[in-house]
Amino acid sequence: MSTPSARGSGRVGVRQVAQAAGVSTQTVSRVINDHPNLRPETRRRVLDAMAALGYRVNNAARALGTRTTRTIGLLASDATLFGPSAGIAALEAAARDAGRWIATAYAAAADEASVVAAASHLRDQGVDGIVVLAPHAGTLPTIVRTHADVPVAALHAGPGADAQRRAAALAVAHLAGLGHRRIARVSGPSDWLEAAARDEGVDGAMASAGVTPGPSWVGDWSAASGAALAPEVVDAIVAPNGPTAVAVANDQMALGLIAGLRERGIDVPGVVSVTGFDDNPDAAYYRPALTTVRLDLDGEARRVVAEMIGAQYSPVKPPVLVVRASSASPPA
């Protein structure tokens, strides 16, 4: 796409964008005003032409005429953890591909007043909708109720929660398939919707496989919390009829747990198998490399953004089991 003449002639207009994209000026206007009846490839071509030409939409003027700022609010909590930080990156990419911007506000996830204040801050900026990342069970309904004038969605609610359940079930089915009949688990914080969905997936898979549920513990998603649970897990493992595997609700807690077990002389997977959840970029480099499950986070982000703006999206891929060295058959 050649653009020097357009750039050198002053402010780029709709006509230059249409010429560069090979479409009509009406099509460009439809992209700018977010018309729903456009093919994704046409929208992408126009957006690419805008970027290449340096075309800038006057958001203030458009907001007056269309009551939209093309900005989606993102309400996040702890971005230091892999799950939330990956979710933020996926949502920003999905919004960008849809010709939108993301405005982010952070809040203490367990503090309802903090979450509502952050949502109000986003609403005051004129966002077209609010996506809640890693929502707590008690705060999401409050946001929906207090901001009923804009769409509110959660990244892992609805179909996203179903994917969480299926992914957790994959890990348990894998362990059961290896011959484990007593499986313990480490859950995420009980007031997180993601933790609840993953627990439901574990429970359902254990029931389907006829597995005896072992003891359960709760961490805070961090590696430190997984390591802190190691003494209790060791006590359970060495007890008569103790668990031979532990399904952990995220990779970071699994990493901490494995480190704590090894410090206490418990071999993974020789004595106990451990699985994680998320397949974070470091999971393959743990020792032992971590067996885990992976979600189509990018696809889920595209789904949420598309549903919020009324656009089409590609189907979200099913979760995938990633088998590595931290799981094996139980000891004889």
From TrEMBL:
InterPro entries referenced in this protein's UniProt entry, alphabetically: HTH_LacI, LacI/GalR-like_sensor, Lambda_DNA-bd_dom_sf, Peripla_BP_I
Annotated HTH lacI-type domain residues: 12-66
Record carries keyword Transcription regulation: yes
Coiled coil regions, renumbered to chain: none
SMART domains in the cross-refs: HTH_LACI
MF terms in GO: DNA binding
Keywords: DNA-binding, Transcription, Transcription regulation
Highest taxon of source: Bacteria
Transmembrane segments: none
Matching Pfam families: LacI (PF00356), Peripla_BP_3 (PF13377)
Protein name, entry field: LacI family DNA-binding transcriptional regulator
Organism of this sequence: Microbacterium awajiense
